[in-house]
Design goal:
Blueprint lengths: L6 H8 L3 H9 L6 H14 L6 H8 L4 E6 L3 H6 L1 H14 L5 E6 L7 H4 L4 E5 L6 H8 L4 E4 L9 E2 L3 H14 L5 E6 L6 E3 L9 H14 L7 E5 L4 H12 L7 E4 L2 H13 L9 E3 L6 H4 L11 H21 L6
Parallel strand pairs: 1-2, 1-3, 3-4, 4-5, 6-8, 6-9, 9-10
Antiparallel strand pairs: 7-8
Helix pairs in contact: 1-2, 1-3, 6-14, 9-10, 11-12
């Protein structure tokens, strides 16, 4: 039977106290670089991999991880280029802090990651307000930062000015002389398809703000857009929605899209009907993602700085976590 290696085993090998060995793993700033290296070398020789993470988290009162709550499936987070850019910015900003990143689905039935996964804080990213995960994060009194989400009392919210960006896109279409305009938007919950009242087509904070921005520019000049609400922002839904608008007698001459992914689907739909972009139909996206420059023709789009949004949100969350640890503030 192989004897169990403990902190005391390493302490006896190096000739220091058990606490000194513990500090080498959890509080390296308390030791000289030379002494810490001697301890780590002895641990390596003895086959010791370090204190159990769960036990360390319990003893320190923190987990060393933050969550990102997503309404859609985790798979979607890896296929959406805006989401991957946002997550990459968070990861870069977290790295110096030593905090790890955990992706959380909204949960189904008895599986609710926001309730069960250990974490020190969380981002709520473009989530359905009614998601049970949002309520559980608040009930756990964790530091939370909302991103692309309607402001919530007692918690920071990081958003761009979606409304003015959408207004600029619609003004561009109007200035080009378009009067038959279609809008492709997305919503977490139904109804889906052609929507009679544009104002009712509100699928979350971002979609709502962008809709209001488009209408700010269209309504004053008497344009009543044809609005199709999609199940989500995936490209193939943009294709289907655009086809439904463009394959008719009174087809729009311009499409305003809630995202570049939807707009890319609209470009494919136009091509499938033999329509030229922008000759026969102008298409405008939103986000200025990498997708916008890959498709042909290159997409006209509204730029948002997704990386800056991720960095700012992370900085705010780290500050919240540090303040809670120091007892400076308490979470709502």
């Amino acid at each position: 039977m192989v004897p169990r290696v403990t902190l005391q085993t390493i302490a006896d090998r190096v000739g220091v106290s058990r606490m000194t060995v513990s500090n080498a793993f959890s509080r390296p700033d308390q030791l000289s670089p030379e002494l810490r290296q001697r301890i780590l070398s002895a641990a390596d020789d003895l086959g010791y991999v370090g204190p159990d993470p769960a036990a360390r988290a319990l003893a320190r009162g923190r987990t060393g991880a933050v969550g990102v709550l997503l309404t859609d499936s985790l798979r979607d987070a890896f296929s959406d280029e805006v989401a991957t850019t946002f997550l990459a910015a968070i990861a870069d900003e977290l790295e110096p802090s030593g905090l790890a990143l955990t992706l959380l689905s909204s949960g189904r039935g008895d599986i609710v990651p926001a309730r069960d996964v250990p974490m020190d804080g969380a981002f709520v990213y473009s989530c359905d307000t009614n998601s049970p995960g949002v309520e559980w994060l608040r009930r756990r009194k964790l530091p939370v930062v909302f991103v692309d989400h309607a402001p919530v009392d007692g918690a920071p919210s990081i958003n761009i000015d979606d409304r003015s960006g959408a207004r600029a896109a619609a003004e561009h279409i109007v200035q080009l002389g378009h009067r038959r305009v279609g809008i492709l938007t997305a919503c977490f919950n139904g109804p889906h398809g052609l929507v009679a009242d544009p104002v009712s087509a509100t699928g979350g904070h971002v979609a709502t703000q962008r809709m209001l921005g488009w209408l700010d520019a269209l309504e004053p000049v008497g344009i009543r857009p044809a609005v199709v609400q999609l199940p989500n922002g995936e490209e193939h839904f943009g294709f289907d929605g655009a086809r439904s608008l463009l394959d008719g007698d009174e087809r729009p001459t311009a499409l305003l899209c809630c995202s570049d992914a939807i707009a890319a689907g609209a470009v494919r739909a136009a091509d499938s009907l033999g329509l030229q972009v922008p000759g026969d139909v102008s298409i405008v996206g939103f986000d200025d993602s990498l997708l916008a420059v890959r498709i042909r023709p290159a997409l006209t789009t509204v730029r948002q700085d997704v990386e800056a949004k991720g960095r700012i949100a992370t900085s705010v969350l780290i500050t919240q976590i540090e303040n809670v640890r120091a007892g400076i503030v308490t979470t709502p």
